[in-house]
Design a protein that fits this description.
This protein is of the alpha/beta class and about 375 residues long. The chain folds into two domains: about 120 residues, D-serine dehydratase-like domain (Lyase, Ornithine Decarboxylase, Chain A, domain 1); about 230 residues, Alpha-Beta Barrel (TIM Barrel). About 30% of the residues lie in helices and about 20% in strands. The chain contains ten helices and 17 strands. The strands form two sheets. Strands 1, 10, 11, 12, 13, 14, 15, 16 and 17 form a nine-stranded mixed β-sheet that branches. The chain has an eight-stranded parallel β-sheet with strand order 2-9-8-7-6-5-4-3.
């Protein structure tokens, strides 16, 4: 999908880490593998389906690694993401979002003829249009009714779940269950705040399940959860499938959450930072250093990136520059400024939109200090917004 597919890659397999051009989007493959294994083990040991959100990485290669580790498939938010990942061999995709445009729904129906496809609905109009498109194409898809469990975005009232599920069935569609994702809970900093939010979400899911039962409909599955709260959804007794996405990379914003005590009896999973922007010092002043990675290299919607080496605060220097200032430690000392040409590893504040700024991943094996480039992967679904 990238218009820059023919440009020179920042590195080639076999290159040392030091040879990676900057700025570049780099994956610590060893750390990512541990993250994949940890989440897969959590789900498997507790009997949950794992369907990671591929909107995080937009990569068929990573989606396939997740499925090889035990995931049943992946989620996306956009039809074009699903089309690109399917084209690159991902066989089971859930569009965990509503699509109501009739031209897009014709594409949904066509895609449903090539892979196992699921989609979310939250309105009569959306259900009727989806049914018409699938009927015209002679294809089928799994349909989840989305309920609003606190996000205040898409989703019907839990008390209307039965009515919409009946509409799904009366149109000859397969009702696959409920979509119940609380995105707003993911970055509540304290574990207590997240627990309150998910307890409230679980109560709303139970209301929806009761409403379905009153309508004579059994709910096959409740799907949702994210990297910040998945242990709480797992402990609730109502969710059966986890849609975590950012765990694969762990950005700075997720790492700012406090983990302690967030899921009594469920254990904690500590994920590692695996996604970095490699940058280089290009100028040094009296009290600051400047790197060559500005906000065209990393998203700033969740704040500035962290600095992997520590001891420095990253400040926004504009499109192409980042400014590093030493942080005064408790003992009053500050780190010495890096020199011109030194490498600085940045931890993106928000991994998803950062990924969408880059054409390629550079996969490094053996660590950031002395590792070697093992792979270069295209960000297959970069720019897939429709």
């Amino acid at each position: 999908m990238s218009h820059n597919a023919g440009l020179r890659a920042p590195a080639q397999p076999g290159d040392p880490v030091a040879a990676i051009d900057t700025p570049a989007l780099v994956i610590d493959l060893d750390a990512m593998a541990r993250n994949l294994a940890a989440m897969a083990a959590f789900a498997s040991e507790r009997g949950f389906r794992l369907r990671p959100h591929a909107k995080t990485h937009k990569s068929a290669a990573i989606a396939k690694l997740q499925m090889a580790a035990g995931a049943v498939g992946v989620c996306v938010q956009k039809l074009s993401e699903a089309e690109v990942l399917a084209e690159h061999g991902v066989p089971d995709i859930y569009i965990s979002n509503e699509i109501v445009d009739e031209a897009k729904l014709a594409r949904v129906a066509a895609l449903a003829g090539r892979i196992r496809l699921a989609i979310a609905v939250d309105s009569r109009t959306g259900i009727d249009r989806l049914a018409a498109a699938l009927k015209a194409a002679g294809t089928r898809a799994d349909v989840f009714v989305e309920i609003d469990v606190g996000q205040g975005r898409c989703g019907t009232s839990p008390a209307a779940a039965g009515e919409l599920a009946l509409r799904v069935l009366s149109n000859g569609l397969h009702f696959a269950g409920l979509q119940a994702y609380h995105g707003g809970a993911q970055h509540l900093r304290s574990s207590a705040e997240r627990q309150v939010a998910i307890e409230h979400a679980a109560a709303l899911v139970r209301t929806a399940l009761a409403n379905l039962a009153e309508a004579g409909i059994q709910c096959p599955l409740v799907t949702g959860a994210g990297t910040g709260t998945f242990a709480l959804e797992a402990a609730s007794g109502v969710w059966g499938e986890l849609q975590c996405g950012s765990y694969v990379f762990m950005d700075r914003d997720y790492a700012d959450n406090h983990l302690a005590g967030s899921a009594p009896g469920m254990g904690q999973v500590a994920f590692e930072h695996a996604l970095f922007v490699k940058s280089q010092v290009m100028s040094v002043g009296a009290a600051h250093a400047v790197v060559d990675a500005g906000h065209k290299s990393h998203a700033i919607d969740s704040g500035m990136p962290g600095v992997w080496q520590g001891g420095f605060e990253f400040r926004n220097g504009g499109d192409e520059h980042g400014i590093l200032s030493p942080v005064t430690q408790a003992d009053g000392r500050t780190a010495a400024l890096p020199a011109i040409g030194d490498t600085v590893w940045l931890i993106p504040g928000h991994c998803d939109p950062t990924v969408n700024l880059h054409d390629r991943y550079i996969g490094v094996r053996g660590g950031l200090a002395h590792g070697v480039v093992e792979s270069t992967w295209a960000v297959d679904a970069r720019g897939c917004l429709t």
